[in-house]
Write a structure and sequence with these properties.
Shape of chain A: elongated
Largest sheet of chain A: none
Radius of gyration of chain B: 14 Å
Shape of chain B: globular
Strand content of chain A: under 5%
Helix content of chain A: over 70%
Strand content of chain B: 25-35%
Structural class of chain B: alpha+beta
Number of helices of chain A: 10
Strand order of the largest sheet of chain B: 2-3-6-7-1-10
Radius of gyration of chain A: 23 Å
Oligomer: heterodimer
Largest interface: A-B, 30 and 27 residues
């Protein structure tokens, strides 16, 4: 409460608050990148590979004194961590609270896979594996001799696509397990 | 709740030495970057991790002091600042004893490190007092 009170008094100065917005982006985002790297045990090389960027770009992005981070780089890094990035205009009260409550815990983010099970359960969806295997089984049934639906080119393609998707998922899971 | 707390050192003459420096800065950008550096360090578990660039334990003739490090970009010029203090790992806090700007090998003020060492000795000898910086 005290931190927010002191900060709010400073934010009454327009030049200060404009600079503070810049500081949040230039220092806050590198802080979150560093925290997520620690959380996920990613090296700069690993994050670079996952993001499709070079290690040098990651090094600069995680440096709070660099200051020239682009939105494209941030979006790629979000994809590398498999998390979302929300860039939006907010009132100063929100920015003030963000800084006043700042901790490594407060900037940790679950990746899509980490929250998928929980969210899918809440939404009544099956697992990703099921979502990919079921169409494959459905398509197989269509190819049975007494199937009500005659085999068509579309069904064969569906099987092949479902197989490829399932294989991609298995490869991805193996990669994640190896990491 | 921050992981680390910051304190201002108030010397035997009753001067809040870091606040005096803070107020004397010629641009709000310097004050903002100083505040943001403190907010982020307060939330950072391990200051000695190689990825943490804003903190350094000093050695040699400045042993016992630590410096915070931040840069302010102004009109295509980068200005580097070094707030100085005592890092107390056990009590998880940092006592700010002063600050300076570093321009090449020149320090502004030039005696910033000597003053910080003087205040450190004064404080450790039971002089002065500290006040939490919020």
């Amino acid at each position: 409460m005290n931190a927010l009170r002191t900060l709010w008094a400073k934010l009454r100065n327009r030049k200060y608050r404009a600079e503070f917005v810049a500081a949040q982006v230039k220092r806050g985002i590198p802080f979150q990148i560093q925290t997520l790297m620690k959380q996920k045990e990613f090296s700069q090389e690993k994050l670079a590979a996952e993001s499709g960027l070079t290690q040098g770009v990651i090094s600069r992005a995680a440096n709070p004194d660099y200051g020239n981070l682009t939105l494209n780089t941030i979006i790629k890094i979000a994809a590398g961590f498999d998390v979302a990035f929300v860039g939006k205009f907010v009132p100063f009260s929100e920015l003030g609270k963000w800084f006043a409550n700042l901790s490594e815990e407060s900037v940790r983010v679950k990746s899509f896979n980490e929250e998928d099970e929980e969210i899918s359960q809440a939404l009544g969806l099956g697992s990703v594996e099921q979502a990919l295997v079921e169409p494959e089984e459905e398509a197989r049934k269509d190819l049975q001799p007494h199937s009500p639906r005659q085999p068509q080119l579309g069904s064969v393609l569906e099987i092949e696509n479902a197989k490829k998707d399932a294989q991609r998922l298995r490869d991805r899971q193996r990669e994640m397990a190896a990491d | 709740m921050p992981l680390w707390r910051f304190f201002d050192y108030i010397n035997d003459d009753g001067d809040d030495v870091i606040e005096k420096w803070y107020e004397a800065q010629d641009d709000d950008a310097i004050r903002v970057q100083f505040d943001a550096t403190i907010f982020i360090l307060a939330a950072t578990e391990d200051w000695t991790h190689r990825r943490v660039k804003s903190f350094k334990v000093l050695t040699g003739r400045h042993a016992g002091l630590c410096e915070l490090r931040f840069t302010v970009e102004m009109e295509r010029k980068k200005r580097r600042f070094r707030p100085l203090g005592i890092w107390r790992k056990d009590s998880r806090d940092f006592v700010l004893l002063g600050s300076c700007e570093k321009s090449g090998r020149i320090l502004i003020p030039s005696n910033a490190f000597e003053l910080a060492l003087h205040y450190k000795a004064e404080f450790e000898g039971g002089g002065g007092r500290i006040r939490e910086r919020t």
